[in-house]
From TrEMBL:
This is NXPE C-terminal domain-containing protein. Transmembrane segments: none annotated. Residues 350-570 form the NXPE C-terminal domain. Belongs to the NXPE family.
Length: 572
């Protein structure tokens, strides 16, 4: 099949005479026209299109989908994209370092036990502790026989909680790689506090996750829907590389012209590659052995260790203080260095330690902050929760019916009196979703490339949850294209606010474990480390309170995440 397609140019004329246009190929014409119509129809009741043709030689056009043989597609790396990443991201071995687990020949009883592992204060107990001080503890990991472990690699989560004050913060867990761990907690509020430690995964379970993550090409697959001119349909398996489509026949390759992202589908038996019209989730693939499943069992996953430290009392440094250890912090703006921890909860309000975060408890405070702004959210469903929170919180922010698949978008809400537009759309494949039109799946790089930017433009990116089912190189390549697009956007309009939402806690399986999410967040941090962007640390915001983990956290946490976003939009 030829890569060349007949070109077409599209000019739209609004009712007031304003025109807008974009070059497009016939396979993209439908989604572009739909997107443009949806975007403007609520403002202008009449939209007219004129379709004109030019000679092929004068029209820039993307390559068409084409069948490729397996041998021609063994390597899907894109060196130019990887070269655009910071050096530390290209070196995945260094960036994703985690202590190795010695071979135990499948002996479950030799794995770390949440019931047998213990922790205690590092020093003598005190009657009270000073605000702004630190509490330290030593954790000793033991196996199911009660024997101390001699190597590290367990994923523990430590928290300092203040139930009476609705307070909490994430503790720092330092792996000494000899079976012991140093726990450290800053004392940031006055009053009662207590330590809680959970074993998320034993080092042996982490070994399983790491082996599958690095060695398996994919742990899920997807369905591609092809439709012919007479309505005939075929469904095939699609995935991130030809081998994962499960076919020995040629495959169809789809390349995003803006980012270089690749997607592959088994070639239909009767229909051409260009007839791909739909996408949906496929299967979760069987990738574990019975021994693996025992180590990842819910009986030993995300379990609280026996209480090792009695509740402590934190005293205020001087009477009359607020009872919070909040030093002078700068207003929230992009480019701030990360702090550890990034913040803490008190009275169910998140206080950032890197900047003077604000609360926006009323409708008027939110409207006053967002007035005149266009917010573009691109990512997964945990970011869609931000869109939904604002839609539900602000009654005058009206959702527009774009006749799109809700799960993937695009979604839009508008507030006409304050001139606010709020967009959300899912990132492109790999995307686990209900059946959705392929034309609606735009790459993040493609969307960013279409933004002019400016002081009234806010871009929020939230990726990660749909990439834990593939090797880290897949996410690194995706980040390469997105980082290049963010860098270009900030270069042409530095006043654009770009916010990166880190992935949050929630999943506990081989397909989406917290350990995998932690590695994804390392890649996210490294990819954007040298760009002037802001971060919302959803990982710590979802792991600091005594509430059950949920990939879709509750309104309390989502509201605090949105407040932090608004703190960057309106720092003062």
């Amino acid at each position: 099949m030829s890569d060349r397609q007949p070109g077409a140019g599209k000019i739209g004329l609004l009712a007031n005479g304003t025109s807008f246009g974009e070059w497009t190929a016939p396979t993209q014409k439908k989604v572009r026209e739909t997107q443009t119509t949806d975007r403007f129809s609520f403002l202008y009741p009449q939209v007219l299109y004129f379709q004109m043709s030019w000679p092929d030689s004068t029209v820039p056009r993307p390559p068409a989908p084409r069948p490729v043989s397996r041998s021609a597609s063994e390597s899907t790396e894109s060196p130019s994209l990887l070269d655009s990443l910071p050096q530390e991201l290209a070196n995945l071995t260094h960036l994703l370092y985690w202590p190795l687990t010695p071979e135990d020949e499948g002996d479950f009883l030799a794995s770390t036990s949440p019931q047998a592992s213990t922790y205690h204060l590092r020093g003598p107990a005190q009657t009270s502790y000073a605000l702004r001080g630190y509490l330290e503890a030593i954790l000793i990991a033991r196996d199911h026989r009660g024997r101390p472990k001699t190597h590290g690699g367990d994923l523990f989560r430590a928290q300092l909680l203040g139930p009476d004050l609705k307070a909490g913060l994430p503790g720092d867990v330092q792996d000494l790689e000899n079976g012991t761990y140093l726990l450290s907690f800053p004392l940031l509020w006055a009053g009662k506090a207590q330590v809680q430690v959970r074993l998320i995964h034993s080092s042996e379970a982490v070994g399983v996750l790491r082996r599958i993550w690095r060695e398996k090409r994919a742990t899920v697959d997807f369905v591609g829907y092809f439709r012919g001119p007479t309505g005939t349909e075929e469904t095939v398996i699609c995935n991130v590389d030809p081998q994962s489509t499960g076919t020995r026949r040629p495959t169809c390759q789809y390349r995003d012209v803006d980012s270089g992202e690749l997607w592959f589908c088994a070639q239909p038996s009767t229909l051409p590659c260009s007839s791909l019209v739909g996408h949906s989730s496929g299967r979760y693939l069987k990738v574990t052995t019975p021994q693996d499943e025992a180590l990842l069992s819910w009986k030993v996953t995300d379990k609280v260790l026996p209480q090792g430290i009695s509740p402590i009392q934190v005293r205020m440094a001087a009477p009359g203080n607020s009872g919070l250890a909040l030093s002078a912090r700068p207003p929230c703006h992009p480019g701030l260095p990360a702090t550890k921890p990034s913040g803490f909860y008190h009275q169910e309000v998140w206080h950032s330690l890197s900047c003077s975060s604000r609360s926006f408890p009323t409708v008027d405070s939110i409207l006053g902050c967002l007035a005149g702004h266009v917010v573009h959210m691109m990512g997964d469903s945990t970011l869609r929760q931000w869109w939904e929170y604002l839609r539900d919180k602000v009654p005058s922010l009206k959702p527009m019916d774009l006749h799109a698949t809700y799960q993937t978008g695009p979604l839009m809400a508008v507030e006409t009196t304050r001139n606010i537009v709020l967009h959300w759309r899912a990132h492109s494949w790999p995307l686990r979703s209900l059946r959705t039109p392929v034309a609606s799946l735009h790459s993040v790089a493609r969307e960013l490339g279409g933004l002019a930017g400016g002081p009234h433009t806010v871009v929020v990116l939230g990726l990660g949850a749909h990439f834990t089912t593939f090797p880290p190189s897949i996410f690194a390549r995706r980040l390469a294209g997105i980082r290049a697009a963010v860098a270009a956007l900030l270069a042409r309009e530095p006043r654009t606010l770009v916010v990166i939402k880190l992935a949050n806690t929630g999943y506990k399986s081989v397909y989406g474990s917290d350990w995998l999410t932690l590695q994804v967040n390392r890649l996210l941090r490294a990819a954007f480390a040298d760009l002037r962007v802001a971060f919302v640390d959803a990982w710590e915001m979802t792991s600091s309170l005594a509430v059950p983990d949920n990939i879709h956290p509750g309104r309390l946490i989502v509201g605090n995440e949105v407040d932090l976003l608004l703190s960057f939009v309106c720092p003062t």
